[in-house]
Write a structure and sequence with these properties.
Helix content is about 70%, strand content about 0%. The longest helix has 26 residues. Helix 3 packs antiparallel against helix 17, helix 18 packs antiparallel against helix 19 and helix 24 runs antiparallel to helix 25. It is mostly helical. Strand 2 and strand 3 form a beta hairpin.
């Protein structure tokens, strides 16, 4: 029995570490490959332990995410791409199943190993970054990212490890604790994450107030943080990392507010969500400032945009109920609070490894969400004779789900990996509705007829794909179908309104047709093209009016005007 527990602990530990090492599980292909590994773990090693699984909070949380991402993919902006996201999110449910067949004591052991994991994922990349070829993977814009590829999510990970370290202080040799502490503080410093730095102060003050036994250690860390903050504002003010703390440029903050403003407008129009990546594809149509982001930098709002208001609120309530549970240890409440607060400013939970950590913390205390014949939230007494019985899923269903999700992950692992390796044509052969791969193939297609057919196929899957409209406009131009060219180019501009290249490309086409018309004495065509050029100036002015006050405050400005001499020349056409 002891050997079985240790085996379970070892494999869960390895799987969690793998998700954190591999870009934090950010990429779809890495997540589904990890999902295959978890499914194998469940099927091969734990099939005898998959008994009735209770509807505890972490199980319900992960099940809602997986189920709703599959449901939303039916009516998503791009169903094919939404299903890749649904496969990625299903891996979180697989991890919850792996936790369900593991003793609660083992889960807590893994949680308390977080400092050791974090120090390795800080020290090894830092040392490896001394080699120039590796540095670009570890640092981004002068900021330390660790193995996550994104500095702010790494900073959250380092902060969580720091809090666990303080809780378990003196369980190791003192010099090890001090070395780890300094490592995490260095990681936070070089990550340059201003919000995480401020959040660290809040979390440590709460820790000091609640935990008398380690208050002096927490206060010492607060003193170090304060000293480092002073240094950031004086000596290192101009550095790329923590010098950002005292910058007077609030473009990043305004950018977050801009994303949320535009995202909310979409969330109101689509209360049931738009599926995975729906926001990403729609943003160019509705944005009121210049930006391109894959996620809205707010995990709660991202849930709303992806799967709808009701599931997002339920997921939030599960976390809040866990935080409010009086029987849950303070450390777990603090970790959940920090993850929740940080995710309101970032896309942390789009990193599958961070989602694993959230589910792990939720699983460390028993909280049944649904029970038979009982009031929600009452203390479970199912272990007593005649006590209340937990509602749950049978072991056979759990095993069937493990096999099913494992097979789905295995299938998606192939095209997603091929796309990551830039084998886009083979990726489409494996997954015919892979829009991103098709767009990559479209950009390489030289044959007009094939390009036109491929563009039609892409638009049948995703009518926001401005690159497909661009391709159809180019084909129409090559075939002298000028009215079609104008129609497609207007559709492309409507879906990519702040890209100056769209307007320049359109103007070049119109000018070439105008020259052709003049050379051939086609006055009607010449007048039509001159009118389209003048209309283009109106389109530019109308699109500039859609820029919001927040859009004007960020560093990236709308620059879609033509040079003055060209503008004047267009206005004088036909005069």
């Amino acid at each position: 029995m002891i050997k079985e527990k240790e085996t379970s602990f070892f494999w869960l530990f390895v799987l969690l570490c793998a998700s954190l090492v591999w870009s934090g599980g950010y990429y779809e292909y890495s997540s589904v490959i990890i999902g295959v590994c978890i499914a194998v773990f469940l099927i091969v090693f734990r099939r005898k332990r998959l008994e009735k699984t209770a509807f505890e909070n972490y199980m319900v949380f992960s099940a809602i995410i997986a189920f709703m991402y599959w449901i939303s993919s039916i009516y998503a902006v791009d169903c094919g791409m939404a299903m890749t996201g649904a496969a990625k999110k299903s891996v979180i449910f697989l991890f919850a199943l792996a936790l369900a067949v593991t003793e609660q004591e083992q889960r807590k052991r893994i949680l308390y190993k977080l400092p050791e994991i974090a120090v390795v994922l800080t020290a090894v990349p830092a040392i490896a970054s001394l080699a120039e070829p590796v540095r670009k993977f570890v640092f981004s814009a002068g900021r330390f990212c660790g193995t996550f590829g994104y500095a702010n999510t790494y900073a959250l990970f380092a902060l969580l490890a720091l809090l666990v370290l303080l809780e378990t202080w003196k369980q190791r040799a003192v010099w090890k604790d001090v070395a780890m502490l300094l490592g995490f503080l260095a990681g936070l410093w070089f990550s340059g994450s201003r919000y995480t730095w401020v959040l660290a102060f809040v979390a440590l003050i709460a820790f000091a107030l609640a935990q008398k036994g380690i208050r002096k250690y927490v206060c010492a860390v607060l003193g170090i943080l304060l000293a480092l903050t002073v240094c950031a504002g004086t000596v290192f003010r101009q550095t790329e990392a923590m010098g950002r703390l005292f910058t007077t440029n609030f473009s990043t903050l305004y950018g977050r507010l801009l994303y949320w403003q535009d995202g909310l407008s979409l969330a109101i129009k689509h209360p049931f969500g738009m599926g995975y990546l729906g926001y990403y594809y729609k943003q160019n149509e509705i944005q009121t400032g210049v930006y391109t982001v894959r996620y809205v930098h707010n995990d709660l709002l991202q849930w709303v945009l992806d799967i709808g208001w009701i599931p997002a609120i339920v997921l939030l309530l599960i976390i809040i109920l866990a935080i409010c549970n009086k029987k849950r240890p303070f450390l777990e409440k603090l970790l959940l609070s920090v993850i929740l607060l940080h995710s309101m400013m970032e896309f942390d939970l789009e990193h599958t490894g961070m989602a694993f950590l959230l589910v792990l913390v939720l699983s460390c205390s028993k909280e049944a969400v649904f029970r038979k014949n009982c009031v929600f939230g009452k203390t479970d007494s199912s272990e007593k004779p005649g006590g209340l019985q937990k509602a749950g899923i049978s072991g056979k269903i759990c095993m069937a789900l493990s096999v099913l999700i494992g097979c789905v992950c295995l299938y998606f692992a192939v095209p997603l990996s091929l796309y990551a390796a830039e084998k886009t044509k083979t990726a489409v052969q494996w997954y015919p509705v892979y829009t991103d791969a098709q767009l990559a193939n479209l950009s390489l297609e030289k044959d007009n007829d094939k390009a036109d057919r491929l563009a039609d196929k892409i638009l049948g899957q995703n009518d926001t794909a401005f690159l497909a409209y661009d391709a159809k406009a180019q084909v129409a131009f090559n075939q002298n179908r000028f009215s079609d060219m104008v129609r497609y180019k207007k559709k492309a501009i409507a879906r990519n309104k702040f890209d100056a290249a769209e307007y320049n490309d359109y103007l070049v086409m119109l000018n070439e047709i105008l020259s052709y018309a003049i050379e051939n004495g086609d006055e009607e065509l010449a007048m039509e093209m001159a009118g389209d050029m003048q209309e283009l100036l109106t389109i530019i002015e109308d699109n500039k009016k859609t820029v919001s006050p927040l859009g004007k405050k960020i560093d990236d400005k709308v620059e879609i005007d033509f040079p003055k001499d060209i503008t004047e020349e267009i206005r004088n056409l036909g005069g």
